[in-house]
Structure formats: structure tokens, C-alpha cells
Amino acid sequence: MEKKLLFVLLTVLISCQKNKEHCWQTYDALGNPMAIVCDKTESEIQALYGPFYDRADAKKFCWKINYSNGTTGYLENLSEKMAAYWYGINGSSIEKVICGYCQRWQTREKDVIKSTGQFSFKQIEVKMYCGDTCSKLFPGKLVLLRETTDSIIYHEFMQKVY
Q1: Structure pTM?
Q2: Percent above pLDDT 70 for the chain
């Protein structure tokens, strides 16, 4: 009987010790992943990193962000806690989407002068496109953005970024 009581007491004491078995993914103030820190309790990690942490093994999702200004953005590989922290504020709303729904493409604007056919390019950007649009994209595709009296401005898809 004494051995059973001692066993129960030891079990309770062990379970009440600090839980240091989790590892934590830390982030900078802009949301960029930084170090993975282990052997810290949640209160210790919070004291060190404020709200910029989550469990390293937290499930990651893909997100559609509807910003309060009417624009839409997409993110991949972000936990629910961190998505809510950075994007579920200031009138923005977030919703989970199926990963693979989006693709990154190198794109640029192509400005063609109507009278001469000469053209110029703006800076190359990497942008994310999502939904049915992705099945219609290919390198070299031109999409008409706008037309002025003297020029035509296209959006050119250069290459998919993996």
C-alpha cells in the first residue's frame, strides 16, 4: 500500500514539473520565421519573444487574406495562431484555402508604343496567383492591363517560381 501511494505521489510530482519538451518557432516583427528554440516553457518563450512565437509542430495552412482596403493576398505555410495575429486584425479577414491553389510567377509590365512598336519593361516582380487563373498561365503569356492613346500596357508572365 505504501509503495502504491509513493508511486502515485511521484507520478503527480513528475507531471507538475515544467514542460520543456516543446520546440518553438520564433518570428521577427514582420512575420519572417527565425530560430527554432527548444527546452523552454511557453511562459519562458513568451517572455523572450512576446507574441512572435508558435509551437514548431503547429499545423501549417494556406490562407487567403481579404484586406480591409479591398485587396486580396495569399500566404502559404503559416499556423492558425500566427495568421490570426498578423492578418486577422484591422478589418482584414482570413480564410483557409487548399494548398497548391496558388502559384508564384515572375512577372513584369511591358509597355508597347503603338506608333513604333518599341517596348520597354518595368522591374521584374514575383507575384502569387490563385484559383482557376493558374491553369491558364504559361511563360510568355501577355494580359492586357490598359491602353492609352499612344501605348498598350501588358502584364507578362515570365516563369513559374518553385
Answers
A1: 0.57
A2: 87
